[in-house]
Each structure stands twice: as structure tokens, then as C-alpha cells.
Amino acid sequence: MGDSKGIFLNSPLLKSIGDLSAFKDKGEYGILGAVVVGMLIPVLLSALFMGKKRIKVRGVQAEVGGEAGYTVRNARKNELVEVPWKGATTVAALFEQSCKKYSQNQFLGTRKLIGKEVVTSKDGRQFEKLHLGEYEWQTYGEVFHCVCNFSSGLVKFGHDVDSRAAIFSDTRPEWLIALQGCFRQNITVVTIYASLGEDALVHSLNETQVSTLICDSKQLRKLDSISSRLTSVQNIIYFEDDGETKDTASGSLSKWAVASFSEVEKLGKESPINASLPSKGEIAVIMYTSGSTGLPKGVMITHGNIVATTAAVMTVIPKLGSKDVYLAYLPLAHVFEMAAESVVSAAGCAIGYGSAPTLTDTSNKIKKGTKGDVSALKPTILTAVPAILDRVRDGVLKKVEEKGGLAKNLFETAYKRRLAAVRGSWFGAWGLEKILWDAFVFKRIRSVLGGKIRFMLCGGAPLSGESQQFIKICMGAPIGQGYGLTETFAGAAFSEWDDNTVGRVGPPLPCCYIKLVSWEQGGYMTSDKPMPRGEIVVGGFSVTSGYFKNQEKTDEVYKVDEKGMRWFYSGDIGLFHQDGCLEIIDRKKDIVKLQHGEYISLGKVEAALSSSSYVGNIMVYADPLHNYCVALIVPSRQALEGWAQKAGIGDKDFRELCGKSETVSEVQQSLSKVAKAAKLDKFETPAKIKLLPDPWTPESGLVTAAFKIKREQLKAKFKDELHKLYG
């Protein structure tokens, strides 16, 4: 997912606003008259019918065991949800039942590769461009046969069912088929990010003693280079790529038994083996977190954990069913995507696979004239991480500003009216005015994501309130912002579709309780008024078994109460609103005590300063021996070069532009304005900053797959720069 952070920056989404100028060019001023009429109707209706708004109760207090705290459960369920329906207690059982129930429905879709070419840019860099066809589909019934064949073939190929298999690949249909195939033989699967570096990869495979490694073909070269360091791998199964053949007998690969995915599937088809199905308490997945500190930790996730989160989320997404189409492009090795695909497959949805570099019509690997994945698929359900949505918002606003005139005025009026309606008038939210704005303004934006999005899921990191509201209005679909961790298989809290507030992650999912426990050192207490605050502790069916071969860390953050319920101490700080919805406000590890005794929350400051148009990514650093903080900033190239052009600097070299004192001063002033608006204290505003021209990507090891910064890795890499800032 390394390219996903900027996939929309040059997409047609950012160009679609420019099309609004067509109103002026075509003389369609009559639209404005219709809009004015539409605006008056909801105002009159609101005045007649809208009284004081009643607060909908979404979470209620609960009595539980364990450490004292303020505990909330989902208001709709008196008891915790464990399964979506009777008999679906494991992932294998759930999947088999779904495949039989929806056997004739479209399930997994991929795009045929028609051709590829390499183009050279003006600066000499080369880029691969793909010509992709329409989606080609397998039904649920066909996929289930593939899963059974692969499951049998895996054993026939020589995998010892008492050992573990690992999947090391980008997201694709074969990833899901391989996962489910392993589950049918009760084989625990180790999931590894495709972007993981060599040291972390070796650590993950050796620690879990993986005997069979399943990967995509491009990873074979990496495996060849580290083969001497792998202690347990015996078999390699690789996913084929269109039109490519692999020499698997050369180099270090010859020491292993190597076969393609289709060869293993054929082997199983010819020699079927009875399934050996798991129980709900057995370990389904050891998921290696991308980790913000040190080497990745393997989280042991049971079948029951996965099924519980799946059952809970299915109750939250409105009318989820076989008519829905889901676009899969985030890494399946990440808990967010695995949970999402578990949910949509249980509901009988179609899953079309794409990738970050091919997502839109102008994504960097799409050949000109070829549709991007969203245009070809027209999904109804889409997941996204906040980094993507933040840049969508910034890009749209930039295009609006560039167009100016009628287009800008019309967009701003439409947005303000829709925002006011969402916050207040039911009629403005759903009546004639909404229809008019959607038809004449927002339709052009929505078409870029296929035009049929009805629900978006956002997770992996906090989403700013501004971006949440902006995307919701412009895309015309509610955003379900979730909170969860690998340690809770993504199942903790989830905002409901009809909740128009922002900055919150909703009530607890019905599979778990959420408890706030006072943290006196940080000053967060459950007795705080008007809302209780404290460390977020999750208990229930989604809480996982602990860390693989790390009992000390497991005992530190997992607790079992006197009633047998398992609790996970997240280290995140939250507060509960009156309606039972959770808001994430801080993180224990991000708090530093400065020289004069002030506490600074690095995460809070970073979140506030990220709203500057110049900030692409940021890490705030505080030395306890000083009374101020500093910051490393990867600037938004588009915003900074735009400023430079207006300022008459006109440097073509971005690296040189980042080093200019005028540039640093401009960004510093922007941060000061943003900090003031966010009511940050003086010591929370970075006194000095360093602009870094190279982006932080998962491949560089400086951010996670969800683009959360890896603070320790950044501190180590840029220790000289940080030292100079304090010098």
C-alpha cells in the first residue's frame, strides 16, 4: 500500500471540480433558480417541524468484572454477539456456509491484463503502465471448489498440517483462497506485509517456524537473497502473474520444493483430502503488526475472534447484502482489510480486487485511456485509511480555488448548505435541496469513485473531523469510522451510519465492552466532568490470545477478570460522550514531560498541525531537557511548489526548495496559525522545524501500512537533524 497515500493527488477526482465551470460555459444559470427554490423549502419545513433534537442513545453503561472503570456496551444488544448465525463458530464454517448460501452469486473479481508498457518521463524516470480489461468473476460456488482444491493440494505438496504456513503477498483473490484453504486443514496462517523489510521478514518466519511460504512471484527474488537466514521454510508456493514465467530451479530457491498456486490447486483436485476443521478457540492467524516500535509482534488471533468481529460489524452496516460490491485494495495482511473482507464475504457481497497504483483513471500505473479500478468496478462499499481521505479533501479544495468564479461560488454554497443541513435540518439533509445539490454539484465528484458508493469504512488511524464531514457530503455516503487494534481483531468501536457527528468512533461494537480506566499520571480520570476519561480497555469475544512467544508483553497488556472475560489494555486515551460514543483523545506513549514540568501530547499536537496545507506528514519531537518541541515535516509537494511559484522563488528542485529559509519560514508561520486555531499552548507549537523532501512510506520502514508514523524508527534515522534543531 506504499503508493496509496498519494493515489488521488493526480486523479480525476481533483479535476472533476473543474467541470463545474460548465455551468457558466453552457449558460445554465437556470440551475441557480431551481436551487434557490429548493433551499427555501427545507427552511420553512424546519421552522414548522423541527424542535429540540433528541439525543439517540448508542451505548449504555454496563456492570462487568475486572479493574474498576467506566464501562459501556452497545445499546442495541443486552448480551455480547459471538456469531452471525448458529453454527458459524469458526472462519472455515462461516466461509463454507456463505459459499453454499450464495453459490450462484458473483464473488471474486479480477481484471485481465491486456498489455503493459514502460514510459519515460521528462526527467528520465521510467514508469510501468498497465492496460487492464473489465472485471472477470468467479461465483461463491466456484471459489469454494478452489479453496477445497488448494487445501488438499497443500497437504499433497508436502505441508505438515502440524506446522504453520505464511502468506507474503499483495492483496489478490489467491490470497483469500489460500487463507481459507489453510483453515480447512486447521493450519495456522502467519500474515506478513508485502512491504516488510528483510530483517523483519526473517524474524517473522523464523520466530513462527513457518514450513510453507505462500507469496506472489515478485517476492521470489527477495526470498532468494535471504534463503541462508531462513531456518524452517521447506516449501514455496507462488502466485503466478499474467504472461510471466519463473525460473524456480536457479539460485537458492532450488533448496526448497517450489510450485505455482495453480499447480498446487491441480494437485488437490486430482487427489482430494477430507477437511480437518478447526474449533473456535484455535489460532487462525498470527498477524504481525507493522509496529510503530521495534521488530513486529505476532498477535495470535483465534477463529472465534474473527467470527465475533464479523458478526458485530454486520449489524452496523445498513442493508449489507448480495447486491453490494466491495473494492479490495488495502493489504490483507492488515487487520482492517482482513476484517472487512470477512464481513462482506459473510454477507454475500461481490469483491473486486484492485490496487493502489491502479485505483483511479489517472493512477500512476494506469495507461492513458484505461479505466481505473473504481471506474471499472463501480463499488458500493469502500474502505480507506485517513491519509487517503485527507488528500482527497485537500485536492478538491485546491481545484475549487484554482477554478474560482461561478464554479467556486457554487461549490462553496452547495457545501455550506449541505453541511448546515446535515448538522440540523432533517429536510435539508434528505429533501429537495439535497437532490438538487447532488445532481448539479456533487455528482461530478462521486462519479470518480464509480458513482455508486453508499457506505465507506475508515480505519487504521484517526480521521480528522473536517475530512470526515467533507467526504461524507461530497461522496454522499456515510463514513463508518472504526476503532480497533490487531489485538482486538479490529473489533472495538464503530460509528453508526446515522450519526452526523465527527471526531468520534461510535459506541462499542456488540461483540465487546469498552472500559475507561483512570490514568492518574496523565491526569485522565473516569471521574472527570462533564465526560469520563481514561485508558481504553477492550473486553469480550474480539480480544485475542496474546503475543506469540512473548509472554512478558502479553501479561503486561492482557488481563483475565474473575468472570473469565479477557481484557486488552490499549494504551490509548478516550472519553465517552453522553450518548455512549467513544472519542480517542490521546495516547500514553506519546506524552512527554518537558523541562519545566509541562506535559506535551505528541500525537495530539501532530493531529492538530496536520491540518496545515503544507503538511504531508509530521513527527513532533520533545526533549525532556528542554522547554519546547521541534518537528520533522514532509511537506505537501503540491502546496509548497504552488506557494513557491506565487512567491517568485520558482525552484525546480524540490529538495533545494525544502532547504530554503524562506520556505521554512512560510511553513512555520502556517503551523503557528494552525496551532493558534487549535488552542495549543506555546510549548506545544514547534519552535523549530526541518523540512524533509522524501516521503515516508511503508517500504522505507518509517510508517506503518496504515501510514501511522513509526516514532522510534524516525528518531533513529533523523537523530542528527533532531540534534541540530536543539543545537
From TrEMBL:
The keyword Membrane applies. PROSITE patterns: AMP_BINDING. The chain crosses the membrane at residues 29-49. Keywords: Membrane, Transmembrane, Transmembrane helix. GO terms for cellular component: endoplasmic reticulum; membrane. Gene3D superfamilies: N-terminal domain of ligase-like. Pfam families: AMP-binding (PF00501). The keyword Transmembrane applies. One of its GO terms (molecular function) is long-chain fatty acid-CoA ligase activity. Residues 129-548 form the AMP-dependent synthetase/ligase domain. PANTHER family: LONG CHAIN ACYL-COA SYNTHETASE 8, LONG-CHAIN-FATTY-ACID--COA LIGASE. This is Long chain acyl-CoA synthetase. It comes from Quillaja saponaria (Soap bark tree).
